[in-house]
Design goal:
The complex is a heterodimer of chains A (about 425) and B (about 325).
Chain A (H helix, E strand, L loop, with lengths): L9 H4 L3 H23 L3 H27 L7 H21 L8 H20 L4 H21 L1 H4 L5 E2 L16 H24 L1 H11 L1 H6 L4 H27 L1 E2 L6 H14 L6 H19 L3 H15 L3 H8 L1 H6 L6 H27 L6 E3 L2 E3 L4 H38 L5
Antiparallel strand pairs in A: 1-2, 3-4
Helix pairs in contact in A: 2-8, 3-8, 3-11, 3-12, 3-13, 4-5, 4-11, 5-11, 8-11, 9-11, 12-13, 12-15, 13-15, 17-18
Chain B lengths: L1 H32 L6 H19 L1 H27 L4 H23 L15 E5 L2 E4 H23 L1 H11 L1 H6 L4 H26 L6 H16 L4 H20 L4 H5 L10 H7 L2 H4 L3 H12 L11
Antiparallel strand pairs in B: 1-2
Chain lengths: ~425, ~325
């Protein structure tokens, strides 16, 4: 995924018409953000949308490191959490001192909180890339998470720092009490940050970051210091992670040490990687999917994190480009008009692959619920986890599903080769 | 005071040797394959849980032999069916694979054995005080742990330095292609080394389980410290890992045992100043700081010597 080229964004490859399409895509995204709460106006869905919005900003900031610069960080939540704390303290200070600062500006201070830490420790951390950077980021993450419990006056200990967003000075008469107003605030910052981060990828700094990711030695030859480039990228990532943390502090009206922890760092890594790091929209897809699954699965099963782990392992092993990579693979085929050759083999693979997935789910749930004895409800069919019938069904689905599915996957690979060859003959690089 | 020093030194060396059982496997795997195995601490945890379960079924001594073998087999399977296929996507993908694996193993363990600590007891044969020192009874089991760790250390040293197998492993560390050209099956060497490394981690788990807490978060608690050890010692350096293990083990054990704070050394701060970062730092005891000491050491070493104590490689 590092070496696997970031194709110079296909949107900018051709001038004229594609420019229009490019702006239309962004406008479409903004329109969706505006219309979404009108279609789904219940409190629960507004909260979900807010969470997804925050997750997208966070995942995009992470991709500045992982996708753009090739830095794998296991401690990115540090900036998110510190941004959250900075925003919370700022909100309380605004209220205490009566400063004329309305709520919509607060995420900026969250960003500055994340940036401050990046400036401070980033220079030491980015001295080295690759595995060493990963380990250092893990260590720093643990350091900050543990320190947050010691420095009680800043981090509020176990309880955290609470705020009340409605007591801040108003803007346009909005109190930001209702979730709908908070949603629009998050959406506004989401659009702003997304545009800024996209613009960053088009700057010389963004381009040289890609070069540092792919070949740091060559970058040195042309007169850049990879360390400085990594440091700058790290600072930008820290800033936008801080913005996401500030938004979270506003949305939850609390900042606590869980914001900084390893779980949060792991989640953003999952979102970004599952979505795909090679395309700008990959982390957006990933953040939507992971947050949605997180909200949806927690009510269905107690072992939802295991499913995350399995999905993640599956993506790493079979599709390191993530979901975005999988989708964009089909682009040349669709352009060349040979995608139709793939459809029969895809349809053929659906049934056994779904059977295999059901078998795996049934096995996991059987083990998870064996001692409790709660019934498993798999797509409307009830299974008793203590009955041998369930075990047999699970075994048949897993073993049978696997062997049949594997042969259909081979058919997909063959069909892919044929379709790609035809596409290549027609002049589309597949 | 002397009592504290003697007991803490013993415990510190013990913890350090335990860390070395883990970090040695991790280091050899890293220098050979370039993969930092994030799931290494998870293999340690699997060792403890398998040890617990097999002890319940067969008794402690068979478990001591079987659990590491089981963990080693799992490690070999991970190398053969996971890492080998991911290798073509680069080291970051391999690291991420083991990260996902660590995540999944923790979930599977807590799914099967629950999230609460297990009642994994010291075997009756070793459940007596070995000696009494300054009115403290030192348990025999801890001496057993120490001797097992030292025995493994010696065996490892002899195998690596004095046998043909060790020669191939050492050669594959630096020149894997050349070893392949000489007709050795590098893939199989990798698989076996990965298996042995995992088995060592499993063994550490079996013997540490009764003395420390056997719980589904033990991998997440130990993992980061383990990575600190190998970065601190210098990635890919066995002597570095050995020194770093002992240093971290001793520092952490002593930190936990000490109860002093700046307030107790220099007197309390003026209470009228109110709570601030300074009062937090002033009042915190060394024992409370113990969990973050390894990470502070890591930051210090990286500032002073970015390649680690004995490291030579850049990345």
């Amino acid at each position: 995924m590092t070496a696997a080229a970031t194709p110079a964004s296909p949107l900018s490859a051709k001038p004229a018409g594609s420019h229009l399409r490019f702006y239309a895509l962004w406008l479409l995204g903004i329109a969706v953000l505006i219309i979404l709460p009108l279609l789904f106006s219940s409190g629960g869905s507004l909260t979900s949308f807010s969470l997804i919005g925050i997750a997208i900003v966070f995942a995009l900031s992470y991709n500045i490191l992982l996708g753009q610069t090739g830095l794998l960080s296991f401690g990115h939540a540090v900036h998110y959490g510190l941004g959250g704390f900075a925003a919370s303290h700022m909100m309380n200070a605004v209220v205490a001192h009566g400063w004329p600062l309305p709520l919509p500006f607060i995420p900026l201070f969250g960003g500055l909180g994340g940036l401050a830490f990046a400036i401070l420790l980033g220079w030491v951390m980015t001295k080295r890339a690759g595995t060493v950077f990963a380990m250092i980021s893990l260590g720093i993450g643990e350091l900050v998470a543990s320190s947050s419990l010691i420095l009680r006056s800043v981090f509020g200990g176990e309880a955290g720092i609470t705020t009340d967003r409605t007591t801040l000075p108003r803007m346009f008469g909005w109190t930001f009490g209702p979730q709908l107003q908070v949603y629009y605030l998050i959406a506004f910052w989401l659009v702003l940050s997304a545009i800024a981060m996209y613009a960053l990828t088009r700057t010389p700094l963004g381009r040289i970051s890609n070069a540092v990711r792919d070949n740091p030695e060559r970058v040195q030859f042309i007169g850049y210091d990879p360390h400085v480039v990594r440091y700058l990228a790290y600072c930008f990532a820290g800033f936008f992670a801080g913005v996401a943390g500030g938004l979270a502090a506003i949305s939850f009206e609390i900042a606590n040490s869980a914001y900084l922890g390893a779980i949060q760092s792991g989640l953003v890594l999952f979102s970004t990687f599952i979505g795909g790091t090679a395309y700008f929209f990959g982390p957006i897809l990933g953040a939507i999917l992971v947050t949605y699954l997180q909200l949806g699965l927690t009510s269905l099963t107690s072992v939802w994190q295991l499913y995350f782990g399995i999905i993640f392992i599956g993506i790493v092993m079979f599709s390191p480009g993530g979901i975005a990579g999988l989708l964009m693979m089909h682009r040349p085929l669709i352009l060349a008009g040979t995608f139709g050759m793939m459809i029969p083999s895809y349809l053929l693979a659906i049934v056994p692959t779904a059977a295999l997935a059901c078998g795996v789910i049934l096995t996991i749930e059987t083990v998870a619920r064996y001692s409790g004895g709660d019934a498993i409800n798999l797509f409307g069919v009830a299974f008793n986890p203590q009955s041998p019938v369930t075990w047999a069904v699970a075994a048949v689905l897993v073993v049978g599903g696997f062997f049949i599915a594997r042969s259909t996957w081979q058919r997909i690979a063959e069909a892919w080769d044929r379709a790609a060859t035809v596409a290549r003959d027609r002049g589309y690089l597949a | 005071m002397l009592e504290l020093i003697v007991i803490s030194t013993l415990n510190g060396v013990l913890f350090g040797m335990l860390l070395f059982l883990l970090s040695s496997g991790l280091t050899v795997i890293f220098s050979m394959m370039g993969v930092l195995n994030f799931a290494h601490a998870s293999f340690y945890m699997l060792g403890a849980f398998f040890g617990f379960q097999l002890t319940r079924w067969l008794g402690f001594w068979p478990a001591l032999l079987l659990a590491p073998l089981l963990v080693g087999a799992i490690g070999m399977a991970v190398e053969r069916y996971g890492l080998r296929n991911t290798h073509k996507h680069g080291h970051v993908a391999e690291l991420l694979l083991t990260f996902g694996l660590a995540f999944a193993i923790e979930e599977i363990v807590s799914m099967i054995w629950g999230k609460t600590p297990l009642d994994y007891r010291v075997p009756a044969l070793l459940d007596f005080p070995a000696f009494t020192i300054f009115s403290t009874n030192y348990p025999a089991y801890k001496l057993f742990m120490l001797s097992v760790s030292i025995a493994i250390f010696v065996v490892l040293l002899v195998v690596l330095k004095r046998t043909r197998v060790g020669l191939i492993v050492q050669a594959a560390l630096t020149h894997p292609q050349m070893v392949g050209h000489l007709g050795h099956n590098v893939g199989r060497v990798f698989m076996v080394v990965f298996g042995v490394g995992s088995a060592l981690a499993g063994l550490a788990g079996v013997i540490a389980g009764p003395a420390l807490v056997t719980q589904s978060d033990m991998a997440a608690a130990l993992g980061p410290i383990l990575f600190v050890v190998i970065v601190f010692g210098g990635l890919g350096s066995l002597p570095g890992a050995f020194i770093a293990s002992l240093v971290i083990g001793l520092v952490q054990t002593f930190a936990v045992a000490l109860n002093g704070s700046l307030a107790s050394a220099f007197g309390p701060l003026d209470p009228s100043a109110g709570p601030s970062v300074l009062t937090d730092i002033w009042n915190v005891t060394i024992a409370q700081v113990a969990p973050i000491v390894p990470y502070l050491l890591l930051v210090l070493v990286l500032i002073v010597r970015p390649v680690g104590l004995m490291g030579t490689r850049e990345s």
